[in-house]
Records
---
Amino acid sequence: MEMLPFILATVFTAATPLLIAALGEHVTERAGVLNLGVEGMMIVGAATGFAAAVLTDSSVFGILAGALAGMALSAVFALMVLVFATNQVATGLALTIMGLGLAGLIGQGFVGQPRAAIPPVKIPLLSEIPVLGKAIFTGDFVFFLSLALIAFVAWGLNRTRFGLLLRAVGESHGSAHALGLPVKRIRLVAILFGGLLAGLAGAYLSLIYTRFWSPGMSAGRGWIALALVVFAGGHVWRLVLGAYLFGGITVAQLHAQAGAIGLPSQFLSALPYLMTIAALLFLSISGRKGAGAAGSLGQPFVPER
Amino acid sequence: MGPERIRLSGITKAFGALKANDHVDLTLHAGEIHALLGENGAGKSTLMKILYGLLRPDSGEIRINGQRVSLPSPQAARAQGIGMVFQHFSLFEDFTALENIAIPLEGRIADAALRAQVEAKARHFGLAIDLDRPVHTLSAGERQRIEILRALMQEPQVLILDEPTSVLTPDEAEALFATLDTLAEEGAGILFISHKLEEVRRLCSRATILRGGKVVAETDPRAVSAAELAALMVGEGVLDLRPAAAHALGEPLLHLDGLSVAPEGVHGVALQDIHLTVQAGEVVAIAGVAGNGQSELYAAISGEGGRVTAGRVTMAGQDVTRRDINARRALGAAFVPEARLGQATLPQGPLSENVILSWHATESLGRWLLDKVRIGEVARTVISRFDVRTPSADPQAAQLSGGNLQKYVVGREIERQPRLMVVDQPSWGVDARAATHIRQTLLDLAAKGAAVLVISQDLDEVMVMADRIAVMHGGNLSAARPVSALSRAEIGLLMTQGESPARGAA
């Protein structure tokens, strides 16, 4: 029982970057834009965040800088797909490749430097509850921010006028344009929000999760976040469930490796990715083709004038 | 006549070299239902998009209630009291009716307050709508009621309807006319875009007729005959169809025996136990409101798609249920799909190369390299025999107008000398002259002994072409009956309610 709060806390720490990045991509995809550059925005957020934290000696400032770096990269994506109406899949892939290179450049000279942990936040009273108190009500501030983001995204999309218009633009940009909705402006907001969160998730990786920078450290988490959005099929609660499930698998494979259960460690490390493929396979063969995805997802929008 | 609501003067809009609107004048008064008539491409939709703020005119003046205005966006048009009901619905499929209504209303969300207002408005105009169902589960008539209600929520002084009855059954159209009459009596001006002359004569007190982007006449449609209106629209007398001389029917060439097909995609329709026979020498038409399984049926007959769960497709006596479109072509079948660009033709390919798409199944077009001479000859023959007007000798498919491209596609298939011809929406979006030409071509083909199956949402087309008519509704197909044994009202009933068991047995 002593181990349980610790294990739960590590599950949450492993899940939080996935959750944050997936929430951002969820909003982007609701607006009808498929941004496959999550991995690239994440790693740039991780490198920039770490560099800024070292240079200013402030992890909080580093996290802010990482989020803004992700948003800056998403602005490039927005320029390409909204103004020049380029193919979203190709542009997103290019963004990932560019992000990986850019992050290596930014992070040069910071490789291997350690960072001290950010002191955890304890919620008064609630953190005294046995087991749960240490697992849920004690954590870094970004973890609590991610919980607030879940509520913000769910409420924003379903209960506000802006959310209604954002979903409308994603469902059918032709109809939205015919009604005079500012399709491109709404999509710009959605793309920038997705970039901000991907950058934040990256900064979380380098400043809170691992507390060091190394090139390629996002290790495909951006792709897992994308798979989570598909898995969620338009429902925020399924996205949250999926993120914590993947966090659990990641931690479980670490413990399984330590416990030496006779399987090669490479296989165990691959487990989260295998689960990603399995989740996507499950979705596509169970005949839910296109279900839950926004109607205009991935199509370039070019109004007649 | 009430006060003047809208005065358009000298509206001009060009797309490149094409003048879609050329100094168009139009005046609309309060309480008036004003028809805007014209062929496809006459500039009706362009004019309405200008009035709704979707397009900016190159020159000309818009006055609303006597004030000169500029309409840079639909919001600006709505603020001036202009509402629009679109031809191709501007609805959001996965959203509920209430959410759809909330979207263009500034500052509103789909909450209880809006629901109360919408319900009150719906009662006032007698529009029955379930506000909580997602739009993709609704019929075309229900969807249009949502569009109208959405426009009415903005208290419009002017309502524009772009070809509102093209997807409606006769009963639904009557209900729409009643709503429009109420609205006009309450002082709104209504612009009614259509090319159905009889309903314009029934509903409208003024008509402005556009041809080639210019106003050619303004008249009272009740004072002139439908033929005169048609002549004004087309310019010269419309060609009439020559009925085929009496001829005997031959062997059955297409036979569907209890065909059931699983639905495709989230919004697909399942086909259930379809029975149909088409004999050599006859034209059978399948009527029905779009989205009742016609696309699925076409795909199942052509072999392009659909997972057959039960039943059989037989062509020329052979079971082809599990065989692909080329095997079916080899048995003498030819297919014209609904989508002209992208399915029937490659948009960027020249007409000669587009010959290959269907001809490769049965003809030798070169062993290693393409026989360019042969396909060029075929394309030239089709172009001259079927009166295809082209901008150059061998243009890209996308350069042809809708009507000419459809003539090319139908001609290309007929040149293969099929024994069975299946055509999905032969004249959708095609001007009247080309539509008549295509229908005549198909009638002549049947007279020469081919079996012809036509799938169409255009009831007029079905009535003039078919020897027998079957109606699709919700994935079911009614029994095919001789056209002489069916009235329009009966077809309308089959379109909305399908076949009752008692009738089917009769």
Note: The longest strand of chain B covers residues 4-15.
---
Amino acid sequence: MEIIEKIKTNKSDDNLTEIQKICLHKLQASPLPNPKSELWRLSNKSKLSNFLDYSINEKDSKFDIPYPKNSQSTIRLIIGENCQIKLIEKNYSIQQLSEDELQKYIKEQITFFKQNENWSDLLNLSLSCKNNILGLKINGSKIPPIEIFSHASCNSLNAKTLVIFLEKNCAIELLQVNLGKENSSLSQSTFFCLKENSSINHGVVSYGENRSNLLNSLNVIQQKNSTYNLGSLHFKFNYARFEISIKQSAGNAKTNIKGMQITKKDEQISTYTKIEFNGPNGFLDQINKSLADDKSHAIFEGSIIVPKIAQRTDASQLSRNLLLSNLAQIDTKPQLEIIADDVKCKHGATISQLNEEELFYMRTRGITLTEASKLQLSSYFQEIISFIPISKDKWDLLDKLLNEN
Amino acid sequence: MVNENLVKDVVKEPYKYGFVTDIETEKIEKGLNEDIIKLISQKKEEPKFLLDFRLKAFKKWQKMKEPDWAALGYKKIDYQDIIYYSAPKQKEKISSLDEVDPKLLETFDKLGIPLTEQKKLTNVAVDAVFDSVSIATTFREELAEHGVIFCSISEAVKNHADLIEKYLGTVVPASDNYFAALNSAVFSDGSFVYIPKGVTCPMDLSSYFRINSGDSGQFERTLIIAEESSSVSYLEGCTAPMFDTNTLHAAVVELIALDDASIKYSTVQNWYAGDEEGIGGIFNFVTKRGKCLGKRSKISWSQVETGSAITWKYPSCLLLGEESVGEFYSVALTNNLQQADTGTKMIHIGPKTKSTIVSKGISAGNSKNSYRGLVKMGTKATGSRNYSQCDSMLIGDQASANTFPYIKSQQPNSEIEHEASTCRISEDQLFYLQSRGIEFEEAVSMMVSGFCRDVFNQLPMEFATEADKLLALKLEGSVG
């Protein structure tokens, strides 16, 4: 109940938007997610309550985050910075969604929300004020890559919301970066609507500092013949949840997901994915990697739902995990729920440590153990990192992962 | 395109064991309370420790809630509307098989279980349980020569109370889960096996469970103890008559394997599954667990699940001893409105433990077939390995197949591999077989049999043929 009180004291009823009111009302019915539900069972309760402890902050403090250098070839947007965008070029247009469009879409989404599955979204939309919601409508072709930033300031709880409509036949590359400052909590909800024949290479890079927390929720609706590619990386968060929900609303769409989470110290990072096929000929290729070291805990839960209508679905899901310390733990649960009979569905999961034979081979060639481990890890990371768009030259992600503690 | 109706017809087969034996039985009144438990205990002339065990379990059960996490939907069970003790009336003490009611012998004969020793064609000792009570156990003397104890658990309570007191409830504690607690409070009979040190059981042991009355639940309890360097293969079969009502079956099986011992436990479960509209059928809620206590001990579960309206069953292995091995081989076939939520738990506690899981699910009709399994590597399970494979086959577009593997590791120096796939009867393969002159029905049967081969290979001889026949029966029928 505390969080609701906090929102209410932070803002009087009159200052709340309609969406905030609706979500707050729903949140009142379930102030916290059910800790016994499958989606929240393994979530660290004290870390979640720590997430909610910080005071709500609607205005960002002046940026003290060193963003990588901006280049002219990319469009950079920062949620919360009162940015007005209206880019109408010859080949493409990027415009802000009107208030009405935004309201209508979000309200429609809320009607599908379920208590435990969308608790993070409800919290986000209860917290997000107008300034912190960015809605975009993207149309056309040859669109330059887009970078969108969300961040949380020190000692505060920030909420950022992103809504993107990708119009027909449109193709984009978009990198979303979530940054957590020291002792901060970031609630990020993203809604994508991919119209027919559109395609997106979506990258999500989330990394924090000491004791930063993240609730990151991603909701994607794919219409016919759309392609959604997601490369994601989460690391350096005391507590982070990445919840992905993808709906192929009429089948005939392609989804590729490559995600990775890296936990150290006593961190807990989890990924939950739910992919629903609501039509025939859907395709999914998903791989999720986790690496857990020190006393940390990495969790992956993925479900693939293939109802009767989704004939000829081809879905595969792989969970690969590296457990590097005696005190760390990994939980993984890939799930298949299938009713259609003419489908190809498979999943796999492995948990192990670095391959000893490979390490031995390298050491016999004079490579030190540390170097050999790094080499192995870099190949493990590279598969995912190379799938994240735009990031390559700017972020040195591999270097960050291998050399930062 | 395969003719869907043909495939549907193929999996139809009437239930052969649905007859009721008209025999006088002794039943107690419906309902469950402390007095009923005391009455059961009194009827069975049990020592005090067992009554205390039952009452304690009952108290725990009262505080527990029926689990709802399984992917099963069934109407609420009224636990006060069940008769918790029912036994065929017979003479006080049976000294030989000749004194067993001939009707009972006839029943088991009809089920293909030879109780009369002159019919002992196969080298299998049988303990037959009819409703709540063990009727007869064969080959006792031969087994006794080797020091093997094979009797009903009621007899074991009287004659080997020390063993029962020492081991009962050590693998599946009374408070383990809702149905185990219920069983601990009201269990009526079951089998007890004790294999002494160094003995390889000279023949397969088998229990045959038969539910006869429609309003009484069956709550049997099986306890198998394999001492150091011993080994045993145990088979279990189950059938029930057709009733419009649902009958509750909540059993507990506990296995204990000490150093270098091995236990192989095989089940062919063919309880009545209800009719095509889902009326009637057995609710099968079973807790089966084995404890590999000793070094290099091995417990292997193999099961063929074709019956029951509802199956809730997770035969598990606790791998405590160093280098102990757990295995689980399962075929679960569901048809019509059957629902099965079954799988296994492999808990690796000791170092260098190994486990293998092979699960094949076949869902036809409007049925629901879920695999739910847990593989856990504890902090001390260094050098342990697990391999799991779960395949599902879907027949028809109304059936559902789910896979829920839970995998947890706390030990970096261990390996877990899990794979699962879903497929249907391949049209190409069907076409190939048919073009070679093999009938459609036989082709489907061959392919299903091939799909299950990995598991059937693990079944003991007697069961492998029975299982093959059982699947073939379910798959044969009106196709030609």
Note: The mean pLDDT of chain A is 89.
---
Amino acid sequence: MSPILVIEQILNGLQSGVMLFLMAAGLTLIFGVMGLINLAHGALYMIGAFAAAAVAGATGSFLLGLAAALAASAAAGALIEASVLRRLYGRDHLDQVLATFALILILSEGTRWLFGSFPLYLDIPDWLSGPVLLPGGIRYPLYRLAIIGVGLLVALGLFALISRTRIGIRIRAGEADREMIGALGVNISVLYTLVFALGAALAGLAGALIGAIQSVQVGMGEPVMILAFVVIVIGGIGSIRGALVGALLVGLTDTLGRIFLPMLFGLFMEPTAATTTGSALASMSIYILMAAVLLVKPTGLYGSAG
Amino acid sequence: MRAKSLFLATAVASALALAAAPGARAEGIKVGMITTLSGGGASLGVDVRDGFMLAVKMSGRDDIEVVIEDDQRKPDIAVQLADKMIQSDRVDLLTGIIWSNLALAVVPAAVAQGKFYLSPNAGPSQLAGAGCNPLHFNVAWQNDDLPAAAGAYLAAEGFDNTLLLAPNYPAGHDMVNGFKRTFTGGINGEIFTKLGQKDYAAEIARIRASGADSVFFFLPGGMGISFLKQYADSGVDIPIFGPAFSFDQGILQAVGAAALGVRNTSQWNKDIDNPANKAFVEAFQAEYGRLPSLYASQGYDTANLMISAMEKADVSDTDAFRAALEEADFDSVRGKFSFAPNHFPVQDIYVREVIKEGDVFTNRIVGVAATDFVNAYVDQCKM
């Protein structure tokens, strides 16, 4: 096992982590501010990828595709919030789960109706394709480095937005006490729509960025959404900082576990059994991590007690 | 309470079915098609359905009634649909299932109730070996066939240090075992990934560091699209091979240039030179405006096999109809086609290469991987 392989895998883990952060940030904001469990967050990820694939396919420009992904998912988010979810804030979490699950089905089949059953084509633009040589002789795909960069920039921007701007103050106030900021004259329903659209746009951005290296197809959002829920549970529900730390932890654990656990078992088991056991344990690793975190800190790493 | 009323409904339905059965249909056939038309795997089901219905239409017969339902890729739904089709639609023959786990849930019960099952895709080893049945026919392949052909091809090409990559689920292990059964070279290692995994950066880094001279991978559907795009972008230049499932006509357009030149094994391709295949490819394009995939060809062959048997026997005469199916007296788009004693195909398996024709990514045949290939389970079948 060479140090190059280890460094490469750490980069892979970071890349998967920052993408998870884009998903988890929206999810945790929406839960923190509005107290809403949004299962349809993965559908917004899918909408971003489809919008990017359609626009990039029609215009040939990946950047226009990204812009379209942001616009389409934010618009879809705002529309969903204003038409359906607004009625659910006061309701039980179970009602919210039911309604947002229905939204997954509606949005998925709606997308199939528009685009058909076959996966769409979206590829990395030429100027970002191929590997680059990093110091130390590591050949690493440029696009994945770009993803890490974009993810970290978005994270910084989000922290600045929440801690430095007026809208950020309102969002934090909304998390702390919903009734009070309404009573202070802040238009709470506009704030909610804005937060939801922001969360949706982040999911759409993640969908478009990931769509270029994975497959753009109906149902692509659900596996990611499950991971995003794991992330916000580990990080503490409602905490952006928790989402970032949780996402990086999950990304690194998953990536490193997938490669190094089978190797580890290979030291003292015969190869086929080691591969099977290692792979099985690797797919459990993030859930074991979640259980361990919850054992020590029941509200997550940065969760507020109570 | 609910279970009781369900039981009552079932009892009434079967009584009605029994009462109406004698002489209800003297000729013709009623087909129940259970396939995946929504969710992630829908493109496969759509192709099987379109291929099947094209053959029915081209036959010009008006005595074939097809009931089509969507199983959503869920075993429980497939079982419910099969019960409904057998008990209330009273179909004579079932077909359409794409996935092995769904086939295992539906087929044994259907054949036990005296219904024919023609599989246009799924070919799990359980139904080929000890669990084979006189009423079950597979018109596609046994799951191990295409990887076994790939193993023979790679060995013949002189590869001697191959890395294997597949998802960690029964079909993934079947494929790896099928490959190893015929591959005589050295194995570099095996990587099993989570089913449905879409990011292969970690695995690709391991491939880069492995020193292997070739990679054999089985990653169907979206997993294959993701792997091929990421592999091409990583700059790793170890040649990769796989069964046709990552290179079918439906997903090649989504993979794009990343798949160009990759070799894969398949029992069918659109350039196989025989009149039946030419007619099929032309008619499919005219009818649906796209190129057919291997799944479409399997659906088409399944319908033509059924029609060939209808010309010789009535489906209500089970023994005669089964004998007619066993003859496989139809013009397969694959050319040669016959059944092994366990009702799985004996056929040639080709090596294809991904090319670009105009704006469309597709395959062309570059060689033969195995001639008259018979599946590995035929001796375990006692019927």
Note: The radius of gyration of chain B is 21 Å.
---
Amino acid sequence: MDVTMSYATQDIWTWWIAIYLYFGGLGAATLAVTFLTDMYLKPHRDLVLWGAWSGIVLLALGSLMLFGHLLDHVAVIHVLNPLVLFYQPHAWIAWGTQFIIWMMFWGVLYALPYMYISPFFQKLWGVNRVMDWGWVQKIAELSTRYRKFIGWMATINGVGVAVYTGLLVQSFPAVALWHNPGIPLLFTVSAFSTAMAFLLLLMYVVIHDAADDHIRVLYERIDLVLISVELVIIFSFYQFMSSGDESAMRSLQLLWNDLGWLIGFIGFGLVVPFLLELRGVLKGWTSHVPIVAASLLILVGGYLLRHYIMYNGVYAYPW
Amino acid sequence: MTRYAMVIDLNTCVGCNACMAACAMENQTEVWNDVWRTYVHDKEIGTGEYAHRRFFPRLCNHCDNPPCMSVCPTGATYRLDNGIVKVDQALCMGCRACAMACPYDARHEVTYADVRTGREFYGSDYRRTRPSMDKCTFCDHRLAAGQQPACVETCVGSARMFCDLDDPDDPVTRIVESGVARPLMPHLGTRPNVYYIDDMKRRG
């Protein structure tokens, strides 16, 4: 029967799930990196507030993409219940949903004390009134007291979200491009790389504090390593797909004949930012424009990666 | 214990699609969207004088290790002791992860619009009340009444045969045990319970 195989890509999870995976990884990794920076490198109000709230907003937007495409929106209540992990421990969406919820919960708790000393939140109508409530102030005090515990809870759940995005795609056994241990690794590395790019963009364009130079340099170096690892993983994928499973070989033919993947993702999403950041680390730049440009390219590349991975998984049907 | 399985003989399927029609009417599927719980693929194989048409019936394989069940975040997909894999409409939120996981393309969606159309199409007999993912149930309601699945009963070429794998005296079970009928893509580890008798060996 094998001689009659046919091959097809899918149109079930398309760009909207690519956005969900992208925002999920980016938002979660951003939150985790800013909290770790705040706990162990330098207490940094603005970085935490930006990291926490942009992470939460990105996660919320990504989750909305998934929610919007559910067939029965009311039934989502079943996956919001934390007990779902006891009877569906093998379902990654169940884990991902809980990671997202608890990352947001601990993220808000960690950011809360900083909101009290932030002029923006003090003036933000509605939020400032909520911050005046006694029990909210009590929670902020507790958050300050248990800062590291809360920070780690948020970080663990954030890393969980970033890893989950890859594990979810990996859990579909029919498609060789997805069902391999490289996908969770690739998505996790990409999530943290895009988070570094996002934070560099924030620190160069929005926060812009000269006292943060050492943080920016560290982020650039980490991002350089992450892009290098990503390039190695992509090369390994090429090797993995070029022989063996027909489904993988078909995916390879689709990807490596697509200029969006080759030039868009690998070229401008990885290689060009890698070179820009390498030059920055080795010799430095007189302007921050090259790093800002590299960050923008990495952010676009992060979406392209997920977009092309989702669209180019090939099912092998024996009919 | 009962373990249901189906054997499909590709030598005798004539591509009449009666199984599709019988299944659709029995299970009130969304035929207006060209959506079927079972589908018969029509494919030309070979070239020149060796060319022939193959009709390939496809349905849920009711796997012993169903990936659709393991990825289901709400537990809506479940497996009965008799091997039948089902969807609980009330629990299913329709994330479509099951459709992504199924190697046999055996899942399809039923939307709010389909439920409304279904009420018009099937009238007051329409059983579905809410959207969800949908799939073959081996007509378990018919099995409970001592009948065969609708697709098996209607098959004019007897290409579809149904059996209990735990009944060694069942002639269809013996076909499976003989190794003549084989599951699709066993290397994926899904351990399917639909077996196919290949037609290629009889040709050429």
Note: The beta strands of chain B are 4-9, 39-45, 52-58, 77-79, 85-87, 108-110, 132-134, 160-164, 181-183, 194-197.
